[in-house]
Design goal:
Blueprint lengths: L7 H6 L14 H34 L5 H32 L2 H24 L5 H29 L5 H29 L3 H18 L15 H14 L1 H17 L5 H8 L3 H25 L6 H21 L3 H28 L6 H30 L1 H22 L1 H5 L6 H5 L1
Length: 436
């Protein structure tokens, strides 16, 4: 049956298409924020790759430890970075919700800058020891615990809500591209001269502090009645515990990465399995970030909109399966390729999880919930390194990595059953609007 063309009156009644959200980079504050994030992460990643190699090499060369004994020291390195995170996370979340967030981020950058300067000095004077490396690594953990909640809570305040998913994806591009360049540059600079990597880190951290200072002040939210600081810290933990959707989202990453984390053992693979030295270690550390940067770039220009929960679960399962393959590989280029895929899968889950957490949390709670999420991420990384180092000391590095990957796949299946809210998350909209 033929239909008549719409009249002018009909056209006036038709809803206009929704305007396309602008790019986050069209906001000057976000550009400064992006630069600050990129430079800080690049400095940190350049430091981290060298600290791990220096500790493993010191344990093997200066202390005469075996591969398994030195692997256990790498596990301890993760533990000493986690302890300040576990203790200070409630404080850091409260600070991010009560004080001007830019200043908190600058303060944390200055702590990390001091750590980089100290590492550079002791490397230059050939004064590094295992206890000193552990102490400086713990101070690095202190810097991370304060910078994470502050930086995460700034982004929603400098872009409109409609732009936030793309802003998170572009922030992930900053993180992942810096994570590509940082380890590679760090490894190459260390091969040229061990001290140069720390000079490089000091300069970048100073630049990061300057650029975050250019963002307009992000004042503490005033949405709730202020109570005792300890009460407010507990509120953040209780809010996350009560909201099953947030709890499932955060703990999925926590347990999957604790069980499957292989990053701590990369110095072992570089030195004694793949035989590539510090240069190869830099590329191994950068490889996951290559895959993550590619995925983040795709999500920035074409973010996913449907079935986000199921896709997040599949991404974590793929991460675990590829970890198994990496653990069994003895070829450098195959190992690099597997790490690229691993990073891409991880980035996909990180993007979905980060967007869901930000959009399902009230602004006056974002600092504390971001701190809880940051604690889970850091716990998964640092405790995952401890798990990997301990298992490598008992079973050997290859068995430790393979067993962890298998366990991560199992955790994903278990969480899909325990938290059906994750499977039912269709879009990024607050979940109570979808299920209430």
């Amino acid at each position: 049956m033929a239909t008549l063309p719409p009249t002018d009156a009909d056209q006036q009644l038709m809803p206009e298409p929704a305007p396309k959200a602008p790019s986050p980079l069209s906001f000057p504050d976000y550009r400064w924020y992006w630069c600050a994030r990129f430079t800080a992460v690049m400095a940190t990643m350049a430091m981290v790759v060298v600290i791990g190699y220096q500790l493993y090499d010191t344990a093997r060369t200066d202390y005469g430890m075996s591969i398994r004994e030195a692997s256990f020291q790498l596990g301890l390195l993760g533990l000493v970075q986690f302890v300040p995170l576990a203790i200070l996370t409630p404080v850091a979340g409260w600070v991010a919700d009560r004080f001007e967030r830019r200043r908190v981020a600058i303060f944390a950058n200055m702590i990390d800058l001091s750590v980089a300067a100290a590492l550079g000095w002791f490397t230059w004077t050939d004064g590094l020891t295992l206890p000193l490396l552990f102490v400086l690594a713990a101070l690095h953990g202190v810097a991370r615990v304060f910078v994470g909640p502050a930086m995460s809570a700034i982004a929603p305040n400098i872009v409109p809500p409609a732009v936030l998913p793309r802003a998170i994806a572009m922030s992930s591009i900053a993180w992942q591209s810096a994570s590509v360049a940082g380890p590679a540059v760090g490894g190459l600079l260390y091969a040229v001269h061990p001290t140069s990597v720390y000079v490089f880190a000091v300069l970048l951290l100073a630049l990061s502090a300057f650029t975050i200072g250019r963002v307009r002040p992000v004042l503490p939210p005033q949405a709730e009645v202020r109570r005792h600081p300890l009460r407010e810290m507990v509120d953040g933990l209780q809010f996350t515990w009560r909201e099953r959707f947030l709890l499932g989202t955060i703990t999925l990453d926590l347990f999957a990465v604790i069980l499957s984390g292989a990053t701590a053992l990369l110095p072992v693979y570089a030195r004694d399995i793949l035989h590539t030295g510090p240069e190869g270690l830099g590329f191994l550390r950068a490889a996951p970030a290559v895959g993550a940067a590619v995925v983040a770039l795709g999500l920035a220009f074409r973010p996913i909109e449907r079935n986000v929960g199921v896709k997040m679960l599949w991404a974590v399962a793929v991460f675990g399966a590829v970890t198994v393959a990496f653990g069994l590989s003895t070829h450098f280029w195959l190992s690099l390729a597997l790490l690229v895929v691993m990073g891409g899968a991880d980035m996909f889950s990180v993007f979905v999880r980060g967007t869901l957490i930000q959009l399902n949390t009230p602004d006056h709670m974002r600092g504390r919930v971001s701190a809880v999420s940051g604690l889970a991420i850091s716990a998964s990384n640092e405790l995952g390194e401890m798990r990997a180092g301990s298992m490598a000391a008992i079973l050997g590095p290859v068995s430790a990595v393979v067993a962890g990957g298998v366990a991560a796949v199992g955790v994903t299946a278990l969480w899909a059953w325990l938290f059906p809210e994750l499977r039912r998350a269709r879009t990024f909209e607050p979940q109570f609007k979808q299920t209430g």
